[in-house]
Here is the input.
Amino acid sequence: MAKPGDFFVGVTDLFSVLLPGAVLTFLAMRAEQSLGHDLLGLLQLREGAGYAAFLVTAYLLGHLVDMIGASFLDYAYDFLYADFQRWPHGFRSWLKATPGRLRSRIKDSLNFHIHGRKRPRRAHGFDDPVYAAARSIALQKPADDRLYQWCRDWLQLHNPQSLQEPDRLQANSKFFRGFVVVAFFAGLVWLAAPMRPQSRAWDSHDLPWVASCLIVTVFSFLRYADLRWKAVQHVYRLYVIGNSNEPPENTCEPGARGDSGTTGNPVE
Here is the structure.
């Protein structure tokens, strides 16, 4: 039977797909109204059927938005936000080193896809302390496995309730990741003219809308990156704490369990 915490996380994850998809569907409907072409067929539906079609379309487009975000924004997060969080020499030094690291990343990616050479995990080799502590404990992890997924699976087996907070942070980060894609798409659509009345030419009145889309895109990405960083760090921290609190084997005092005076098993 599902626990309330599992249901809450499921609903949060569902809305991280539905809400961005609903906004994108609304923008598509506005574009259809301006163009006079009912491409998705939503403008012809009314009442119950229209709501159902809107929700189905929002769900499908939401998954498309989520796929786009996972394909591009996760790499941008790792290269920009997470890399900056690990950088020990300050913002100016990080910004100065970014072009060289970008060239190194592109070269490593091409070598991986063309020649099958293994890509190094990071170009600069810096680790945050929580990651380093978790990696030093996960000695049984396969070499090619992701440490984050290893730690999550370990927590899922040993203490699944501890994942409620990381899952909440991760689901909310996906929500803002979706809005990065939606806001960027809204700005492009407005520039392409379908949403402007009668597809009129660009003028100064369109600048506030495009600027607003750009601001929402930037701040949604920063919020997504901040929530994801906190979720990942939380998983590593819980993994380290969980392993440090595990009792060592064969350390129970005689008579600790039962009245026989024999050595008991470690407390579970």
In short: The first helix runs from residue 4 to 35.
